[in-house]
Design goal:
The protein is of the alpha+beta class. Helices cover 23% and strands 45% of the residues. Helix 1 packs across helix 2. It starts with 6 loop residues before the first strand and ends with a helix.
Length: 150
């Protein structure tokens, strides 16, 4: 799996970096604003209460699965990355978010994602699924953050 398999995108959000981080850094709360995430339950947390292992039921287009993701907070608050611990269908789901304060009350969020399934799927289809998943997540994050800010 080379870097070329990773899909990425970013979005400009008219909301403070703190407001954006509050949403993005709370995986248990994702179902409240992300239509692709049907449920999320924290299986384990670190000493500061940050979720380190989260079970999610995801449904993004053709992609339906129950996944357990491991979250890595070592680069927070500038980024949060995740890797796949377990899933029914997926063999890989890794990626992360970067959060940048634009200095004018707005925030830029980048999201990169790599998914792989146990069944062979053409790279083009997989990349399209990744891209659609990213675009939707960023749009919904933007909508929610701006709604809360205003």
């Amino acid at each position: 799996m080379g870097m070329s398999d990773t899909s990425k995108s970013s979005v400009h959000i008219e909301a403070s970096v703190d407001a954006v981080r509050a949403l993005l850094f709370d995986p248990a709360g994702y179902p409240a604003w992300s239509s692709a995430i049907k449920s999320a339950s924290v299986l384990s947390s670190d000493g500061e209460g940050k979720a380190t292992k989260v079970e999610m039921v995801i449904k993004a287009g053709q992609l339906k699965d129950r996944v357990i993701l491991d979250y890595d907070w070592s680069a927070a608050p500038n980024s949060l990355t995740f890797t796949l611990d377990d899933a029914d269908m997926l063999t890989q789901m890794s990626g992360g978010y970067t959060v940048s304060d634009n200095g004018d009350g707005s925030t830029t969020v980048g999201y990169e994602l790599t998914v792989a399934l146990s069944m062979p799927i053409p790279a083009m289809m997989r990349n399209k699924a990744e891209k659609e998943t990213i675009e939707l997540a960023l749009k919904e994050l933007k909508d929610r953050a701006e709604e809360l800010e205003n």
